[in-house]
Specification:
GO terms for molecular function: hydrolase activity. The protein is α/β, with parallel strands linked by helices and 257 residues long. Helix content is 48%, strand content 12%. Helix 10 (208-217) links the parallel strand 5 (195-200) and strand 6.
Length: 257
Amino acid sequence: MSAARRTPVVLLHALSLDASMWDAQRRALQAVGHPVIVPDQRGFGSVPLGDEPPSLDVVADDLARTLDELGAGPVLLAGSSMGAYTALVFLRRHPGRTAGLALLSARATADSPEVKAQRLRFAELVQSEEARPQLIAQTTPLLVGATTRQRRPDVVERLLADAAKADPAALAWAQRAIADRPDSTDTLRAADLPAVVIAGEEDELVGAEESRRTAALLRHGRLVTVPGAGHLQPLETPDRVTRELLGLLDEIGAPAC
């Protein structure tokens, strides 16, 4: 087994979910010898929210501390949606710790005023006991594509259950942190590492043109568009995502930590 086959992989989850969204990829990567680090973001899974003001800087620094505690060297950093935004902030705040980058369903730019306002409105409504059930019912199915909604109702049911059990304060905190994230265009232009941008062909939240622009910023990046998938490809098309991560690991060619 080559050294690249043992590169540690960090998998960062999407909003309203937790580390378990990456279970298929975790098992597959561990089966071929990679250390896999799948943290819950603060407020999700078993991790307390804490009292820090909403900021992805805080989340990125949480990850840096986790890697320090594990003694991990440069990693393949993969993030889905919120996790991808965290990855971009980590890349900026902690240079030299990322050997490869996989961004799933993310844009490089900051939110427009309209999108930011929508996030802040979500953060307000999700903390209302009256508004929350309808908000979750309306927004959560949009996280997957039409094919998944039609053919894999189990995935939609799982997402609805995860959103319903998530701490409303954590959902609001995360949306506010995402809304305030900076533009990452310059960070990606400066990134000298193997990278892949994975987009769902049926993604209703991040459009195809945005994914193309993000991939074009990366000097060693490529765009992969996954048919039959929406915003959450690790759950919708798990085998395809695993193949892309393994391909990226082969590109890294770095010694194990």
